Automatic annotation (TrEMBL):
PANTHER family: GTP CYCLOHYDROLASE 1 TYPE 2 HOMOLOG (PTHR13799:SF14), NGG1 INTERACTING FACTOR 3 (PTHR13799)
Source domain of life: Bacteria
Coiled-coil residue spans: none
Signal peptide from the UniProt entry: none
Family: Belongs to the GTP cyclohydrolase I type 2/NIF3 family.
Lyase among keywords: no
Pfam family of the protein (one): DUF34_NIF3
Metal-binding in keyword set: yes
UniProt KW keywords: Metal-binding
Protein name: GTP cyclohydrolase 1 type 2 homolog
Length: 364
């Protein structure tokens, strides 16, 4: 099993195209063709984690946070980033990170928080814009079902909790093949009219190659007519943060105590308790203050995230409760997400979850 095979299983769930523009997700150290003997999963790659990988015989580290976030100009061991990268290279250990891309997908970091808290009716808090494409193609009526099944299998036609979604209309296509053609229907050199179906469906843009490949494989014509349109619609299945509802209302103080226990928080920094009862909860793993307006607009009673600055707490304006549970605390279960993805594909492979607590923040 090679590095490429392992990371492809993660990127099928969280494509690199979903990372934010400032991010540095992907293979940071190592060779895609390198043979993998063992995997270590962690939140942060630091020197002690690389040492742990060496001890456990793991030569691929899968992390949430990229060890290289800004450009490195020197490798002389002057800081922990350089030392960590140098140690990994010396020991032939590959380092891969899935960061904001795993934040942005269903089943990712924010949904994991929702599930731990016990939320239902979950929705993406800030859906991704301009991610959807529309495919329109024209198929002989007798072959339409085969083509639909092929493009659906490739990932087209999913809208929310529905799949195999398409619009189909009947019409007549015309064509005339040249001397070098071998038409599926009709005769070369003669104008032919064929009953066809116009099939319309949508897909996320990262699946374009896969969907078009499936279309071309299943379509009977030598020359396949199809159009791709870019849509302004948001993709409700992709984006940062989530919002959901508790099964039953909870007392605000008791809710805060419960999440403190779930996430093992040293403390929870929060705004005034402006809501006695909590029902609707917005969440974001890591640093979520940029989503505060979205959380307020969603009518959430409380926003659970990390890394709020002092003045940002004022921005709640008593419209909801901000609960800052800490960056590490909100993302620590990302390791479980990676473990589930990798072991599902490789059930008998040596996959370890790091035992190192990489949280740089301590509480007295």
């Amino acid at each position: 099993m090679k590095v490429r095979d392992i990371i492809s299983s993660i990127e099928e769930v969280a494509p690199l195209s979903y990372q934010e523009s400032y991010d540095n997700a992907g293979l940071i150290v190592g060779d895609y063709k390198q043979e993998v003997h063992g995997i270590l999963i962690c939140l942060d790659v630091i020197e002690s984690v690389v040492e742990e990988a060496i001890t456990k015989g793991a030569n691929l580290i899968i992390a949430h946070h990229p060890i290289v976030f800004k450009g490195l100009k020197r490798f002389n061991g002057s800081n922990y980033v350089e030392r960590t990268v140098m140690m990994a290279i010396k020991n032939n250990i590959a380092i891969y990170a899935a960061h904001t891309n795993i934040d942005s997908v269903r089943g990712g970091v924010s949904e994991k928080i929702c599930d731990l808290i016990g939320l239902k009716n979950k929705k993406v808090l800030s859906p991704l814009d301009e991610d959807l494409k529309k495919l329109v193609t024209f198929v002989p009526s007798a072959d339409a079902e085969k083509v639909r099944e092929s493009i659906f299998k490739a990932g087209a036609g999913s809208i929310g909790n529905y799949d195999a979604c398409s619009f189909n209309s009947e019409g007549t296509g015309s064509f005339r093949g040249g001397e070098d053609t071998n038409p599926h229907v009709g005769e070369k050199g003669k104008l032919h009219f064929e009953k066809e179906e116009r099939i319309e469906t949508i897909f996320p843009k990262h699946l374009k190659g896969k969907v078009i490949g499936a279309l071309l494989d299943a379509h009977p014509y030598e020359e396949v007519a199809y159009d791709i349109y870019s849509l302004d619609n948001t993709n409700p299945q992709v984006g940062l943060g989530m919002v959901g509802e508790l099964e039953k209302e909870e007392n605000a103080i008791e809710f805060l105590k419960r999440i403190k226990d779930i996430f093992g928080c040293g403390c929870i920094r929060h705004t005034n308790i402006t809501k006695d009862k909590i029902r609707k909860v917005a969440v974001c793993g890591g640093s979520g203050s940029f989503l505060l307006r979205k959380a307020i607009a969603s009518k959430a009673d409380i926003f659970v995230t990390g890394d709020f600055k002092y003045h940002e707490f004022f921005d709640a304006e008593d419209k909801l409760i901000i609960a800052d549970i800490g960056h590490y605390e909100s993302e620590q279960f990302t390791r479980d997400i990676f473990y589930e993805i990798v072991t599902k594909k490789l059930p008998n492979f040596a996959v370890h979850i790091s035992e190192i607590n990489s949280n740089p923040i301590n509480y007295l």
